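Re: the 327-residue chain
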Amino acid sequence: LKIPIQLATVNRGLGNEEEASAWLGRAEEIYRILIENDESEAVRKEVGYNLLSVYLQGNQWNRAIEQIENLEQTYGEDRNRPSLLFIRAMIEKEGFDNPEGAYDIYLSVRDKYPASVEAPRALLAAADIRYGEKRYEEARKIYAMVIEEYAGSTAEVVQAEWQTARLLEESGDWNAASLKYKAIYQNYPNTEQGLLAPMRIIKKYLDEDEMDAGRAAYDQAVEHYEQLIAGQAPIGVKILAESHIVTAHAEMAEWEKAADRLLQQTEKYPYYPGFRKNYLTAASIYEKELNDAKRASQALQICMERHPGSPLAEEAERHYRRLEEQR
């Protein structure tokens, strides 16, 4: 039943907007026929929600609101009611450019359905609206509600902590913000926010030309990432930590450490395609930042040996020949 919607999504992802719209049109036609004629209540219900998805994907906001009302009238207070209310709020904000109306609806999700999975998400969305308006104190109080009332919803709690740190930073309270960022990476090390927090601290100090503080933050960040890599973190977390270590080295202009680490990663994670271009990046650092054409050529040679016949090796060979001609 979802195939027409999926095909529309695929075409939109490929940039085929006309074909995507055509599939959404076919989906609407099919779903309307099924709603009117299928004898199965379960099928009609599923199709009703699919029809809502069609309208949302097609940015047909008024029709989406009508379909939400149809679903609410038909199925009453069923388990999908909180998600319908959440979607209605999203339409107010994104579709009708009515953040204030969306804010009220988001808060009503938490008030009416406090035990639903949508409740902490709705509070976050409401807080983000106030954050975007620079009404920081109101936003902070709502983020605090997420943290205090929904401790079991880790993803939402971490995001609330992160947004709190950001608003503290933007409102000029860097001491409190830095402590919050540090607490995030200590308490939630395997999350996206936990991985980004050490870099946020480094960048802030460097932007303010506080080099000693930046160096101390850099040392702490590298130590933190190394502990993650050496520990029992999931492989995806370790790979991200590796990438952040290279970024930290680059921020501090520790170019030799950055280039060496890039090459070490290709040996340590040969199965990870994202590190295959490390040879080229390392070669560029050796050449441009360290003025070491010999080591740049060596990195390119390794690339050609490890990935013979590949487009990556061909690019490495072009750079290698250019360096050899310059010697």
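Residues 10 and 273 are 24 Å apart (CA to CA).
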